[in-house]
Write a structure and sequence with these properties.
The protein is mainly alpha-helical. It has one domain (3-120). It is built from five helices and four strands; from the N terminus they run αβββααβαα. It has helices at 3-10, 43-52, 56-68, 87-103, 113-121; strands at residues 23-24, 30-31, 36-37, 77-78. The strands form two sheets. The protein has a two-stranded antiparallel ribbon with strand order 1-2. A two-stranded parallel sheet has the order 3-4. A hairpin with a 5-residue loop joins strand 1 (23-24) and strand 2 (30-31). The longest helix has 17 residues, at 87-103. It is globular, with a radius of gyration of 16 Å. The chain starts with a helix and ends in an 8-residue tail after the last helix.
């Protein structure tokens, strides 16, 4: 994404990340495509966008959560632990988790990748390693 597209994505006219569906590949591995990298929008573009509107990634998360709420599919968020090394990263994560917690209910379940994989292949949890 170019900085301009990223800036527009964070605006009130922005895009909504995709809702995805897991699949089993030819090797039996479950693929859960990503909907949104939580730290895909950084640097000067983020600073400008946050000054004009709000954190663009939090807005994209809200759009994605609202889209999947009550529907079919998965809104798959991901990040790297090293994204949470400063106050801005922690603030973003807290905002995202707070919104998800507010929306969680009968139409919106929060699942681990393990649970999604198990449901996709229809297996019970493995208790032996």
């Amino acid at each position: 994404m170019t900085p301009l597209v990223r800036a527009v994505s964070g605006s009130p006219l922005g895009i909504t990340p995709p809702i995805v569906h897991p699949r089993v590949d030819e090797h039996g591995l479950v693929e859960i495509p990503a909907s949104l990298l939580l730290f895909c929008f950084e640097g000067w573009a983020r600073q400008i966008t946050e000054t004009l509107w709000a954190d663009p990634v939090v807005k994209m998360v809200q759009r994605g959560v609202d889209q999947v709420d009550g529907g079919d599919g998965i809104f798959h968020l991901w990040l790297h632990p090293n994204n949470l090394i400063n106050d801005a990263g922690i603030k973003r994560m807290e905002s995202v988790l707070s919104y998800i917690d507010q929306k969680r209910g009968p139409g919106l379940a929060v699942r681990t990748m393990e649970t999604v994989a198990q449901r996709t292949v229809g297996s019970a949890p493995q208790q032996t390693w």
